[in-house]
Design a protein that fits this description.
This protein is of the alpha+beta class. The protein has 2 domains: 2-50 and 159-290, no CATH class; 57-151, Alpha-Beta Plaits, CATH 3.30.70. Helix content is 72%, strand content 8%. The chain has 9 helices and 4 strands. It has helices at 2-15, 17-55, 67-78, 91-102, 130-141, 153-194, 197-205, 210-246, 255-286; strands spanning 58-62, 83-89, 118-123, 146-150. A 4-stranded antiparallel beta sheet has the order 2-3-1-4. The chain starts with a helix and ends in a 5-residue tail after the last helix.
Length: 291
């Protein structure tokens, strides 16, 4: 039964060239749209993490203390759970930064206590929210020789609200694209099955079971989905190369992410062809007596 289904599925794919190309093209378009939405969401997540890390930066200002104590606090901050990166800014370096930003006129402000040493801390993305940062700020503030701990709370709240809104909009657009793609594929496969209604009716009249009739069409749908997924991956790769050439700031996923994305696309194509063919043939067989 299985070899027959595979043989007939391949034969049907070759015989019905127009309907096969139409169904494969519809699935390719659907998978390209869904794949591009997935990549855009990945890029948006990367930008979101980068932006939150910059906005969620915590700065620890130190009292007038020795360099050894300051270095000890720096190492302690660096090993604090939730901290990704810490940078020690000495008084001399703070003076250089201040002069670079304000020019020669900044020298009138230079006093021994005007620019204290500080430690800039960047935390993990999961910690970048008001509650987690408040806990970190309270911990840093309890340390000896720490004068003040600050972070831009209003900007963080505003950025989080905007990112949440963009996430909802992106999710809604992605859902609409997915539903439109499924509708497009379902109708295209249904038309392809309808174009072969006489063959299905003949098989039904000579006593073929519904399962026997469905299997070659399911194999054909799987083949169409596999080809569509490979074509979609190629098109997405070309689009990505072109876009990155014009916008080199966009990140490129690592090999594991690329492999996972490719596997997900191929499985999605096979599943789309399988379910679409199964559903179309089942509905047609239910009403075959009308033809």
């Amino acid at each position: 039964m299985i070899p027959y289904s595979i043989k007939e599925g391949l034969s049907g794919f070759r015989r019905s060239t127009f309907s096969s190309v139409a169904a494969t093209s519809a699935m390719t378009v659907a998978l390209v749209l869904v794949g591009l939405i997935a990549i855009m969401m990945w890029q948006a997540n990367e930008v979101s993490d980068w932006l939150k890390q910059r906005v969620g930066e915590v700065e620890i200002f130190l009292d007038d203390t020795t360099e050894a104590v300051a270095q000890s606090l720096y190492l302690r901050a660096q090993s604090t759970p939730g901290v990704v990166e810490a940078e020690y800014v000495s008084k001399e370096k703070a003076r250089e930064i201040f002069q670079q930003e304000f020019g020669d006129e900044a020298t009138v402000f230079f006093e021994d206590t005007f620019l204290p040493a500080s430690i800039k801390v960047r935390v993990e993305p999961d910690f970048i929210n008001s509650d987690s940062l408040n806990v970190l700020v309270a911990e840093f503030s309890s340390w000896n020789r720490v004068d003040e701990v600050v972070f831009n709370r209003p900007l963080l709240v505003k950025v989080q609200g905007n990112l949440r809104l963009l996430g909802l909009i992106g999710g809604a657009v992605g859902l609409l694209v997915l539903l439109a793609s499924i509708f497009l594929v379902a109708n295209t496969i249904r038309l392809a099955i309808y174009a072969r209604r006489l063959m299905i009716r003949t098989m039904k009249l000579v006593g073929a079971t519904d399962s026997f009739i469905r299997q070659p069409f399911i194999v054909e749908g799987i083949i169409q989905g596999l080809i569509a997924s490979l074509l979609a991956l190629f098109i997405i790769w070309v689009i990505h190369v072109v876009v990155v050439a014009y916008v080199p700031q966009l990140g490129t996923p690592d090999f594991a992410s690329i492999a996972s994305f490719g596997t997900a696309m191929i499985l999605s194509g096979v599943l789309l062809g399988w379910i679409g063919s199964e559903n179309a043939v089942r509905r047609f067989l239910r009403n075959v007596s009308l033809y």
